[in-house]
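About this split. The held-out portion is used to measure sequence recovery: a designer receives only the structure tokens and must propose an amino acid at every position. Recovery is the fraction of positions where the proposal matches the reference. Here is one held-out target exactly as it appears in the evaluation file.
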């Protein structure tokens, strides 16, 4: 009960702070290819306003009900939005260069997803062909 109330209060505070601030998408650093915006699962304005709802719902469906879908998967968000820096490393979730953190830092809102989840894309290691490994 207290957790739900706390979440609602936090969300209301975020909305008040965010809506009253001069934070705009244009003045926040993003390490992202602009062309990827047209590939998102929802329009940009919808994602900006409701991404936390989609992610929380997806988390509940996965953890509680065992239902895994890709549309609002945090993994898919990370794989698309978190791009390597010029040196090939990924930005820290604690810096404005990290896609998620840019707005969250500016709005003074903690990104809790990465307390448990990876904040950078998972790179699959290509499996060697059995024939190649015998050489």
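Reference sequence for scoring:
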């Amino acid at each position: 009960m207290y957790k739900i109330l706390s979440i609602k209060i936090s969300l209301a505070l975020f909305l008040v702070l965010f809506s009253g601030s001069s934070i705009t998408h244009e003045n926040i650093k993003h390490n992202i290819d602009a062309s990827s915006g047209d590939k998102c699962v929802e329009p940009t304005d919808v994602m900006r306003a409701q991404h936390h709802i989609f992610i929380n719902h997806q988390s509940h469906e996965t953890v509680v009900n065992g239902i895994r879908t890709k549309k609002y998967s945090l993994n898919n968000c990370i794989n698309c939005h978190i791009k390597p820096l010029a040196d090939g490393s990924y930005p820290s979730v604690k810096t404005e260069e990290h896609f998620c953190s840019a707005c969250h830092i500016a709005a003074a809102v903690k990104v809790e997803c990465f307390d448990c989840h990876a904040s950078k894309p998972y790179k699959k290691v290509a499996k060697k062909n059995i024939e190649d490994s015998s050489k």
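Annotator remark: Residues 27-117 form one domain.
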